[in-house]
Amino acid sequence: MNLRPKFARLPSGDLRMIRREVPMVSTGSLPALFQSPDVVEDQAVAVVRRLGGNVTSRQHILGQYTIQFAKYRGQTFHWVVENALGFCAYIVYDMRKEARVDTPLSANKFALKECVNSFPQGSFYKEMINYLLYIHV
Questions:
Q1: What's the whole-model pTM score?
Q2: For 87-104, what is the mean pLDDT?
Q3: Hey, which of 8, 39, 62, 87 would disulfide with 35, CB 3.0 to 4.6 Å?
Q4: In 10 A of CB 87, how many CB atoms?
Q5: Organism's domain of life (predicted)?
């Protein structure tokens, strides 16, 4: 398995923002509380190791983090970046004035931001959202 997301493109060559068929994880199968950052990290490292990835690669490890919030809760960062790049860019944009606090939710959001920003495609969409919001204000 390739641990780097595949960024789908439209026929025009533009990056695809979101897939039409998006499987959601059943909320009944998810824990009610956020997992601690250490648990999320340990689980991600175990998955990377199992998949034969590089456990020293921050991108590989972040890709296997489980998102702890919003409609894609329960999916891996890899899946969300690959299938809902627009959602990721929006989250990163929405966090622009957010300060990191010592909570599992904050840690998970900032880890997603780190993951998105580690790819040129993620930075591109973050800048595009900033521009679109600027011209529509």
A1: 0.75
A2: 89
A3: 39
A4: 21
A5: Eukaryota
